[in-house]
Amino acid sequence: MAVETKTITDVIKERTSVKTGYIDKEISQELVLSLLDDAVWAPTHGLREPWRFIFVAGDRKEAFIEAVLQCHDKARHEAVRSKFADVPAFLVVVMNEDPRQKVREEDFAATSCMLQNFQLLAWEQDLGVVWKTPNHIYDPKFRESLGVQAGEKIVGVLNIGYFDKEIVAKKVRKRTNPAEKMSAF
């Protein structure tokens, strides 16, 4: 029996953000670390590797959700809670925020490349990921709850989990032909 091998092109084109449809299966810190071990091979100017990670799963999920809820009006708590309750794991990605614009932008680009690597590697392992940048990542209460310091930026929160492939298969994916966006100088 032949094993199907996917090309990097296949993985890039198939990967999609998985926002719903997670199944109740644990995501271990070891699994996430193994993905990060490869993801950090992203381009990074001067090998600064400006990132760090906060992993949330299992019995720490409720405290994480409470940290999110403190940034929202009580009237919205149930709606907000429902967005997080079914997500098996979260990975908060934090980067150093250098005061020099050039370095800060290089570090953000490097962190973004690393995050895309992570998403592709996760997809290859049948894990769904969505990279979220909700308003609460800028809230001092949320940042303090997670131990994010001055001079650090939360680049995003990754929702991670195994998922119902039938739900994702129904998503319509389309991209604009790059020729429509290219000019010559």
Main sheet, how many strands, which sense, barrel? 4 strands, antiparallel
Kindly provide the name of the CATH class.
Alpha Beta
Strand content: 15-25%
Span between termini: 51 Å
**Overall helicity:** 25-40%
The CATH homologous superfamily corresponds to NADH Oxidase
Task: Write structural notes for this entry.
39% of the residues lie in helices and 17% in strands. It has 185 residues and is α+β, with helices and mostly antiparallel strands. The chain has a 4-stranded antiparallel beta sheet with strand order 1-2-4-3, covered by helices on one side.
Short description:
With 185 residues, this protein is of the alpha+beta class.
